[in-house]
Amino acid sequence: MFSPVLDDGCLVVVTGVNGYVGSYVAEKLLEKGYRVRGTVRNATRCLWLLDLFEEKYGKGKFELTVVEDMARDGAYDEAVKGASGIVHVASIVQPGPDPNLTIPPVLAGIRGILQSAIREKSMRRFVLTSSSVAVLEPTSLKQTVTVDMWNDRAVELAWAPPPFLESRGMDIYAASKVLGEKEMWSWVDREKPHFVANSVIPPVIFGKPLSTKHQGYPSTSAIPVTILENDKAAMAAFIDQFPPFFFVDVEDVARLHVAGLIHPEVMNERLFAFAGPFNRNDILAILRQLFPKRELAPEAPGLVTNESEIKPAERSEKLLQGMWGTGFRSLEITVKANVENYLGK
């Protein structure tokens, strides 16, 4: 065991706390005995979090604060006061076709919250939520991935000259993750802050949302549900666009954020939250085992397995095993949790 960097009861700020990942990060921190201040753009729409966490952990453990525009100078100054740690999850996840409307505000938000953090003497740790698309292109089926890799191709595509077509959106999102994480590391190298920074890099995230009543099935948590329902239109518009890639359970992603916050040996690291490879047929096979009488789509012909070697994921697995007793959840476990939650089981 180890002595956590943050003492029991310390305050941690989680940005975008109402989201799929942010809400679970808050949950795992509260489980560990920390206090959480979550930032949202609209407090009224997120009061359910106060009710949920108060019921589970008691009064005074969780609070909400509003940051309407993360790119505004000083946007996070009040939010981080008295905090010992920050998990910066908030970002622009559904960009339009114009990179100028996404990338600059994302970078400004990262710079801004780091500047707010450095003014807090109590600050010990900062963790940034990055993404697999900051590291490699999803279409890359056989690479050896190392900790110092970047998806610079996405930046080139995002900033290509007009016309700005809707098809550019994914490249813009990827570029915002590449440049956003690089911005953090450059800032740390330049400013030499008194706190330690880490990043967490998840691929496609599955697993049940914290509250489907208030969150629905956001982002990629909708994939197993859509396949279960055999929603052909949604599959054609969304799922069929996903090449064979890698997955992780949302709770494992949250746990790795906690590791980046409190583990004394995790310093200036990129934590790769890659549980294993998957493709659509793998999910179909699991659903057929769980629901043999249900009508499901046929297997997609010719799908292969992504054979990229994610070497840094071994480090993340060991952290999970050391701190929680188990490593990454399997695809079977996370898909089952996803769909059984949907079916109300």
From TrEMBL:
Keywords: Oxidoreductase. GO terms for molecular function: oxidoreductase activity, acting on the CH-OH group of donors, NAD or NADP as acceptor. Signal peptide: none annotated. InterPro entries: Epimerase_deHydtase, NAD(P)-bd_dom_sf, NAD(P)_dehydrat-like. It holds the Pfam family Epimerase. Residues 12-265 form the NAD-dependent epimerase/dehydratase domain. Belongs to the NAD(P)-dependent epimerase/dehydratase family. Dihydroflavonol-4-reductase subfamily. This is Aldehyde reductase II. It comes from Aspergillus welwitschiae.
